[in-house]
Amino acid sequence: MNTRTLPLFVTIGIFLAGCLICWVQFPNMASTRVLGNLLTDNAYLGIVAVGMTLVILSGGIDLSVGSVIAFSGVFIAVMLRDTGLHPLPVFALLLGLTTAYGACMGWLIDRLAMPAFIVTLAGMFLARGAAYLLSIDSVPIAHPFYQTLQNAYWLMPGKGRLTLIGVLMLLTFVLGMIVAHRTRFGTSVYALGGGEQTARLMGVRQGRTTVLVYAFSGLMAGLSGIVFSIYTGSGYSLATVGTELTAIAAVVIGGTLLSGGAGYVFGTLVGVLTMGLIQTYIVFDGTLSSWWTKIVIGLLLLVFILLQKGLLHLSETRLAARDA
Amino acid sequence: MMFKTLMLTTAAFAVSAGMALADGKVIGFSQIGSESGWRAAETTLTKKQAEERGYQLQFSDAQQKQENQIAAMRSFIAQGVDAILIAPVVATGWDAVLQEAKEAEIPVVLLDRMVDSDPSLYLTAVGSNLVHEGEVAGQWLAATVGDKDCRIVELQGTTGSSPAIDRKTGFEKGIAGHDNLKIVQSQTGDFTRSLGKEVMESFLQAENGGKDICALYAHNDDMAVGAIQAIKEAGLKPGQDILVVSIDAVPDIFKAMADGEANATVELTPNMAGPAFDALEAFWANGTEPPKFIQTESKLYTQADDPAGQYEARKDLGY
C-alpha cells in the first residue's frame, strides 16, 4: 500500500465501519430500501461531486455548482410551463448552457490568472440571481414525461427501489472514472494539479485543460440540476444552498487531496455514500439532532486533512532521507 | 476483549431499542428546522403530545432543506413507522415520496403547511387558514387606522412558501376597499429576526427615514421583533409612530405589546400535533377518514388582551 492509495483505503474502511455500526444498532437498516434510498437521495450530490473531483484534482475549486443546480431546476420548470417544448430538448439546451457557463469561468480563471475561488464565487451569485430572475416562487413541473421519469424504477427484492436517477449517478461515476483515469485529458488534469511547472514540463496545454475542466463541472452541475428537478418534481430558486460545500466535503472525505494532483473518482462515490449513511443513521435513531450530520462530517474532514498532511510530511522526509 | 465488550454493549443497546419499538406506535416527524421560536414551540408540543400518548417519536430536523426532508421521509418509510408527520418546507415537489408512503400504507399528516400534490396522497392536513390570518390582521389595521391615509410596509416570509403567499393575499383582502391603505414596500425577511431588522432598515431609508410609514405588517412575529429594533434605532417609536401588526403570537411579541411597542398579533397555535394525533387515532381505531383539512383557530390579540399575562403563559413552551 503506497501513500497514493492509502487515503482511498481509509475512506473505504470508514464507510465499511460505518455500515457495520449501523447494522449492529439498527438491524433493519440492512435492507434494499435503505440502499435504494441512499442512491436516490444522493444522486444529485454524487453527480455534481464527480465534476468537483475533476476540478479539485486540477488544483481548482468550483463554488458555483449549488446555484447552477437551482438555476437548472427553475430553468426547466419555467421552460416547460411557458413553452410547449418536450423536456428532452430543454435538457439539451440546459446542458449546453451550463457547460458554456463553466467554460466561461474556466476561461476567465486562465486568462486573467484569477483565483478559481473568486471567479466561481461570482459565478455562484450570478447563477442564483438568474434563478431568482426566472421565478421567485417554486414552480411545479407537471409534464407527463416527468411522471414517467419519476416512476422509472426497478423494484429490488425487499421492496427497495433502484431508481433511474440512482442508476444515472452510478453511470456518471463510471464516466468520471474513465475521463479521469483513462483519457489524455484526465492525465492533463492530474498534471495541472501536480503543479503548473510540472504540467508545462509535461507539455500540457494549461489553458485548454482549465477551460475543459470547468466546462465538465458545469455539465455535471447541469445534469445534477436535471436529476434534482426529477427528484423534487419542481424548480425552486432557494434549493441546494450550500451543496457546493457538501460536494467538496464528499470529495475530500473520498480521499482526494484538496491541493490537487492526487485522488480517485471512486473515492468520491464512497465519500458521498458515507455522508448519506450518516444522515440515514441519524434519522433511524430519531432522537439525535440532525446537526450531528454536520458535526460528524466536520470531524471526518479534519481526519482526512490531518491524514493528508501526515502523508505529505512522510513522503517529504523519505525524499530528504534518500537525498542525504 | 475490549472488542467483545464493545460488541456486547452495542448489542444490548440494539435490543433495548428494539424493546422500545415494541410498545406503542412509532411516528416519524420531519420538521422544517428551527428558524423561528414558533417552530421550536411546535416541536416541543409535538414531542410532549407524543409522550403523553405513549408514542415513540422519530424526530428529524431538515435545516430548511427540502432534500433533507425527502431523505428523512424515505428513511421513515424504510424503517416502517406507523405514521409520518411532516411540516413541508415548500409546497412543490412531494408527489413521488408521498406516493411511496401511500404504497407502503403509511398515513402522512401535513402539519401547518400545504403541498400542491393530490390530496389522495396524504391522510389529512392540520393547519390554520393562512389567508384568514392575513385577513384578520388586515381588517384590524383597517379598523384601527380609520379614514387616515396609511402607507404600509410589508415583511414577507420565505419566498415561495405557502404562508408567505397566503398571508400576503389575506392581508390584501383584509384592506381591500380601503383606498387610504396602501402597501408601498414589500420584501422578504425570510421569517428571521435578523433579516426582519435588516430589511426594515432599508424600508426606513427608502421612506424618508420612516416618517412616511404609518404601519408595518410582518408575516411573522420574529421579523416584527427584528423590525421593532430597527425602528427604535431610527429614533422612532414602534407602536405609536409606526403601527406594528404581525402573525403567530409568540411570547416575545406579547412582551413588546406589554411595552407598547407592538399593536396586534394573530395567533397561529403551535399545537398542530394534537389534532393530527386525534385524527390518526380515529383512523387506526376504525378507519375513519378525517376531512382533508383540519383548521385551527386564528385569534386576534391586541394590547387590551393582557399581553403580560399571555407572555407568562407561553414563555415555557420552548419558543
UniProtKB/TrEMBL annotation, chain A:
Protein name: Sugar ABC transporter permease YjfF
NCBIfam families in UniProt: PRK11618.1
Name of one Pfam family that matches: BPD_transp_2
InterPro entries in the cross-refs: ABC_transp_permease
Membrane association type: Multi-pass membrane protein
Keyword Transmembrane helix among record annotations: yes
Subcellular location: Cell membrane
GO MF annotation terms: transmembrane transporter activity
